[in-house]
Amino acid sequence: MRPGEQLTLQIENEMEYGYFLTDGEDSVLLHRSEMTEDIDDQDEVEVYLYVDHEERLAATMKIPTINAHTYGWVEVVDVVEDMGAFVDVGLSKDALVATEHLPPFEEAWPKKGDKLYCMLKVTSYGRMFAKPATEDVISDLFTEAPETLMNKEITGTIYRLIATGSFMLTDTGVRGFIHRTERKEEPRLGSTVTGRVIAVKEDGTVNVSLLPRKQEALSVDAEEILTYMRTRNGAMPYGDKSDPEDIRERFQMSKAAFKRALGHLMKNGLVYQKEGWTYEKK
C-alpha cells in the first residue's frame, strides 16, 4: 500500500479510536475522525491512503477533489514565503503549490480564498503537491464567446500571468485576456476580477479591460471636485465659465473634463451654480 492510492480494503478489526483495514498483506489505520459514515455493518470500505501529520501511512474515507488524472479548482488556504501556496484538496492535509509554479514576484502570488486549477501529485513519501494546469489542459474548459458580450461586464478567475498581461476564465468557460495597458495593477494569480469586454475575437476569446468606463472616469473627476469643495465649506469660485488655465492649475484637468465632471455632479443633484460660483447642495 502506498500514499495516493484509492483502494477498497477489508475491515480487519475495530479499535476504540478507529478501524484497522487490510489488503490481505498489510494493515492501515482508519481513524474515526477520517470516517464519513458508519461502517459497523460493512466488511470492506473504500479509502484513500495518505501520510498523516505524524508521518504515518493512514486511511481516510474522504476522497480528494483532484488527483493525478483529474484537474479541478482548489482554494488557497495559506501562503508561506519561500514555500508557496497551500490549497484545500478535500483532505485533512493540504497540498502545496510550490514556488516554481507561482509568479516570480510574490505580489502576484495568490492569497487565501483565491482559486487555482490544479492536479494532484503524491510522492512516495506522501508529500502532496498541486500543480496548476498548463494552457493546453485548461483549454478543455474553453467555450466560444458570443458577440453579444461586447461592452458587457464579465467576471472570471486569473489563471495565467505573462509579461504582456493576464488571462482570465469565466464560470461559463469564456477565456479573456487583459493587456497590461488595460489595468491599473497586475491582478494576482487565482484572484477573481470583473472587467469590460472590449473585443470579441474570431477565435472565440475576448479582450477585457479593468479600467473604468468613460462615464465612470468622469465620476472620478467629479469626486475630486466635490472633495475640494468640501474643504471650502461646500463652495468654490469655479464654474463652467471659469478660465481654462485656472481650472488646469487647480484641478490638473482640462476645461472640457472639468465641465463634464461638473455636469455629472449637477445632473445627480449634488451641486448648483450661482454667479460664477459652485455650491454643494445640503
Automatic annotation (TrEMBL):
Q: From what superkingdom does this record's organism come?
A: Bacteria
GO MF terms listed in the record are: nucleic acid binding
Instruction: Write down the InterPro entries for this protein, in alphabetical order.
Output: CvfB_fam, CvfB_S1_2nd, CvfB_S1_3rd, CvfB_S1_st, CvfB_WH, NA-bd_OB-fold, S1_domain, WH-like_DNA-bd_sf
**Pfam families tied to this protein:** CvfB_1st, CvfB_2nd, S1_2, WHD_CvfB
Domain S1 motif span(s) in chain numbering: 151-211
What protein family is recorded? Belongs to the CvfB family.
UniProt name for this protein: S1 motif domain-containing protein
